[in-house]
Amino acid sequence: QVQLLESGGGLVQAGGSLRLSCAASGRTISSYTMGWFRQAPGKEREFVAAISWSGGGTTYYADSVKGRFTISRDNAKNTQYLQMNSLKPEDTAVYYCAADRFVFTGQAMGVPDRYNYWGQGTQVTVSS
Could you report how far apart the first and last alpha carbons of the chain are, in Å? Predict the structure, then answer.
C-alpha cells in the first residue's frame, strides 16, 4: 500500500510563491506517475501538473498554471514537489497529491481516475 502525505500549503499574497511537497511511504515510487490536483470551494476537482519517468521525466501541466508552476521529483527521498510562483487568487484550493503504479504520459496524466493513490490534501490560500 502506498501512502501519500502533502505539506507546504499556507496563506500567501498574490504574486507570491509556495512549494508543496508530497512524501510517499509504503513502497518505492520511483517508477510511478505522480501528479497534483486541486479543488476550490464550490468547484470541481481539476488537474494541475504531473510527472512521469518516461523519457527521463515527462511533465504535463494544465494551461492555467503553465509557466508559473513546476513539478519535480526526488526518487531518493521518495518525494515529489510542486513549486508555485506568481500565485493568483484563483489558485486558492485544496491541493492533492496523487500517484499511480503505471507509467503514462500526455493527456492521460491529467485524468483523476488514472491515479489509485491520493494524499489528504493541503490548503493553499492566495489573497489579493
Answer: 40
